[in-house]
TrEMBL record:
An MF annotation (GO) of this entry: RNA binding
BP GO terms, sorted: phosphorelay signal transduction system
Species this chain originates from: Sphingorhabdus pulchriflava
Ranges for domain Response regulatory: 2-116
Pfam family, one: ANTAR
Modified residues (4-aspartylphosphate): D52
PROSITE patterns, per database record: ANTAR, RESPONSE_REGULATORY
InterPro entries assigned to the protein according to its UniProt record, in alphabetical order: ANTAR, CheY-like_superfamily, Sig_transdc_resp-reg_antiterm, Sig_transdc_resp-reg_receiver, WH-like_DNA-bd_sf
Protein name, UniProt field: ANTAR domain-containing protein
Domain of life according to the entry: Bacteria
Lineage of source species: Bacteria, Pseudomonadati, Pseudomonadota, Alphaproteobacteria, Sphingomonadales
Domain ANTAR as annotated: residue spans: 122-183
Entry keyword set: Phosphoprotein
Database matches in SMART domains: ANTAR
């Protein structure tokens, strides 16, 4: 497992490193400068990012957003003090673990494992949500195409659906693609 540690403090980064050494868990990269952070992280391609921001400021949180979006990997964030606004911003940025005053070597491994599990659970939920949204959009297109055929050709619903299905089978496309094409053609023709 490749783990990137982002911390401007060598002493604090050493605590994280100590918590990971001897576990056989990781190939580590410690980044102490923020310049070009996203590019360096992309080049290393970590499985997990551990960020110690002490008391995160707005710029650091925006940087966290950029890291989270660019990498799509679990991010665990360590801070010294609890701040509701910072915590909400971190969660919005996709942080998998937000740890307040928890930078102790013996806690690092469980936190890494938690961040990975939460990230994977969230990714599964996001995939399911995307699939549900796509299915709903396809269903709406098919329903609209059926309604168009029923109106334009005076068909009942079952016959309109059967025609869409036959057109899909004949063209080797999904029924939702045929429905989208029909709706687009009707729109281009001005609903004639």
């Amino acid at each position: 497992m490749r783990i990137a540690i982002v911390d401007e403090s060598p002493a604090r980064a050493a605590v994280i490193r100590e918590g990971l050494e001897g576990t056989g868990l990781a190939e580590l990269l410690v980044l102490s400068e923020r310049a070009g952070l996203v590019a360096r992280l992309e080049a290393f391609a970590p499985d997990v990012v551990l960020m110690d921001l002490a008391n995160p400021q707005r710029d650091e949180l925006e940087e966290l957003f950029a890291v989270s979006r660019a990498l799509a990997r679990p991010v665990a964030m360590f801070v010294d003090q609890s701040d509701e606004t910072a915590m909400e911003s971190a969660i919005d940025a996709g942080v998998s673990a937000y740890v307040v005053d928890g930078l102790k070597a013996e806690r690092i491994r469980p936190i890494v494992e938690l961040a990975i599990k939460r990230f994977n659970a969230f990714a599964r939920l996001k995939t399911e949500l995307d699939e549900a949204r796509n299915a709903l959009a396809e269903r709406k297109a098919v329903d609209a195409a059926k309604a168009l055929l029923m109106k334009k050709r005076g068909l009942d619903e079952a016959t309109a659906y059967a025609q869409l299905r036959k057109a899909a089978m004949d063209s080797g496309r999904r029924i939702s693609e045929v429905a989208d094409a029909l709706l687009t053609a009707d729109k281009l023709m001005g609903g004639l």
